[in-house]
Write a structure and sequence with these properties.
Blueprint lengths: L1 H10 L3 E6 L4 H12 L5 H15 L7 E7 L15 E7 L6 H11 L3 H18 L14 E6 L4 H4 L22 E9 L2 E8 L6 H12 L13
Parallel strand pairs: 2-4, 4-5
Antiparallel strand pairs: 1-6, 2-3, 5-6
Protein name: Condensation domain-containing protein
Organism: Mycolicibacterium mucogenicum (Mycobacterium mucogenicum)
Length: 230
């Protein structure tokens, strides 16, 4: 019993690294996106970029990627409380990690009645897995399972009165459900992109993940989200 309790406490300790872009990053990203990849969401561009960046630093990613989806963006107005439902859509993503393919997979998974039912069932199943406890969360899969959450698109996030202090960094400890999981949380502060990654340090090198995040927001790096537009 004591060993089980000790493991429970240790397994809950995950770490966080973060990165912040230049103040006009999102303005430049949207301008490039509108020219080369019209219709592709910022979330898809960031997801493509972080996948390429993680693999570039030696962290191989699983083809199953979880993307947080706010159903209010996909359902008609006036559908009731369902429009407030936010869950994770599992999509398959393979190299070369194109943002257009990610955007298409997200749209396909969340469009139509059958897709929405599948999306809801997958989200409930994920919640049940998370409730089983940390011992079950240990995973033999050595590939990093990426889960991306986009706080900038949530109604609650839009109500936050962001301060104009450029030195302040906005981040969240996003949930980490499995030992091989890396959860990327995004915040949009004006035209600036703030990223934070939560993960178990016993599984991944925090320096490599920090480097990967930096590459996403570095406009001079071909791995950046702006580079995902090409």
């Amino acid at each position: 019993m004591l060993l089980r309790t000790t493991w429970d406490l240790l397994s809950r300790e995950y770490t966080l690294v973060y990165a912040r872009s230049e103040v006009d990053f999102l303005t430049r990203l949207r301008a490039e996106r509108d020219i080369t990849s019209p219709g592709v969401t910022i979330l898809a561009l960031v997801t493509a970029s972080i996948l390429r960046s993680l693999n570039s630093v030696g962290i191989q990613t699983d083809s199953d990627v979880g993307v947080m989806v706010d159903l209010s963006r996909h359902l008609p107005v006036g559908v009731g409380t369902l429009s407030n439902f936010v869950g994770v859509a599992p999509i398959a993503v393979s190299p070369p990690f194109r943002a257009t393919a990610i955007a298409s997979a997200m749209a396909e998974y969340t469009t139509g009645c059958r897709s929405l039912v599948r999306f809801g069932m997958a989200t409930v199943a994920d919640m049940l897995h998370s409730a089983r406890g940390p011992v079950v969360q240990r995973c033999a899969n050595q590939f990093a399972k990426l889960v991306v959450t986009d706080h900038g698109e949530l109604a609650a996030a839009r109500k936050i009165r962001w301060q104009s202090n450029r030195d302040r960094l906005y981040l969240r400890f996003a949930p980490v459900g499995f030992s091989n999981q890396i959860t990327l949380a995004t915040n949009r502060v004006g035209a600036q992109l703030h990223l934070s990654a939560s993960f178990y340090e016993s599984q991944f090198d925090s320096r490599l993940i920090e480097l990967a995040l930096t590459r996403v927001v570095d406009t001079s790096d071909d791995m950046s989200a702006i580079g995902s537009c090409k």
